[in-house]
């Protein structure tokens, strides 16, 4: 989208973990700290045949280049005895769930701190490699929207990771696996989660040096604290992004089916825009309450992106995307804007997708101004402001920030509409010239 400044093309930039086995369907999905629930969403992608060469150098790209400014903050090295004590000898009543890495237990350290302890599945094909990657990544990366690594254990053949405990578990628990007794997530909470997740990805892509490609964004990997603040977890598939002028890195195709960008599946070429596509799928999950892949639904509805495409192309049908559990309790203007962001992230051509910094700005307005609160936020006692000039200054700054966020959100929505209009004009022109071409059902 070079028609407005938000998207400058020259801007720099399951439960079973995947292994070298063939593709297969696994009916579980990661949830709290990598725990699992039954579902078909977790169909994992494995390496697919392609005409590109997969270099070991690209796949083993785990060293930061010289001259980077990232400071490592390694967590505590625990003994196996300490973690066994913290989890009551890994008792079943402390089990939070089972993920691709292995079992995840709730524990309490000697100082009283609650933690989540992830124990390596010793039979896992890639467990040890993912253990090393995750320790390295979370020792170097620190952000409010990334889960914090408390420490690790590497006693003998034991491999365990210790994280901060997230009270509300994974987003999947509340969005995809909620029971009839659970209160569904409100629209504002969903937008808050979307905004926080976008900020986490923005940090990885645009502030970490070198950039980091998360490669496994999904609802099951988003953990929530007691105030529904989201944090990215499970960095076992994360890769360092391209450096020294390179446009991409080449790796075996790994991730969760339904979230992976089409160009990555076809070529194995990995960029930060691969994560942007996954974020678009993630936004659709938040909007619809549906899974990225759900084999329990009719064939035409099993893949979320394919099901949503006709509605993404027609603004009059946006309301059909909304989760029925919201019972219509959402602002239509906000819906139009967030669907516009999702549509841009899901562009078939990677270069047309926005950068995460643009998505952060666009979603910031929706997260900070809940539906129905606009009037309350704009009303302020005039006499009190007159008495305290600093209040007026802060209010003006806040208003300018909100206005900028609204402008970017409207620009993204406008950009999506313009692209659809151009596609319609080209189609009509081709028909008038008697040219009948194949319909590209993958183009938004």
Automatic annotation (TrEMBL):
Keyword Manganese carried by entry: no
From the UniProt record, list the reaction(s) this protein catalyses.
Answer: L-threonyl-[protein] + ATP = O-phospho-L-threonyl-[protein] + ADP + H(+); L-seryl-[protein] + ATP = O-phospho-L-seryl-[protein] + ADP + H(+)
Q: Which UniProt keywords apply?
A: ATP-binding, Cell membrane, Kinase, Lipoprotein, Membrane, Nucleotide-binding, Serine/threonine-protein kinase, Transferase
Q: What GO molecular-function term can you cite, just one?
A: protein serine/threonine kinase activity
Tell me which residues bind ATP: 118
The protein's matches in InterPro entries, at most eight in alphabetical order, are given as:
Prot_kinase_dom, Protein_kinase_ATP_BS, Ser/Thr_kinase_AS
The Protein kinase domain covers which part of the protein? 90-366
Report how it sits in the membrane. Lipid-anchor
Q: What is its EC number?
A: 2.7.11.1
Record's superkingdom?
Answer: Eukaryota
| Bias kind Basic and acidic residues: ranges | 395-405
Q: What do the Gene Ontology cellular component annotations say?
A: plasma membrane
Region called Disordered, residue ranges: 28-69, 380-405, 422-444
Q: Which CDD domains match?
A: STKc_IRAK
Location in or out of the cell: Cell membrane
The family assignment reads: Belongs to the protein kinase superfamily. Ser/Thr protein kinase family.
Know the name of this protein? non-specific serine/threonine protein kinase
Upper classification of the source organism reads: Eukaryota, Viridiplantae, Streptophyta, Embryophyta, Tracheophyta
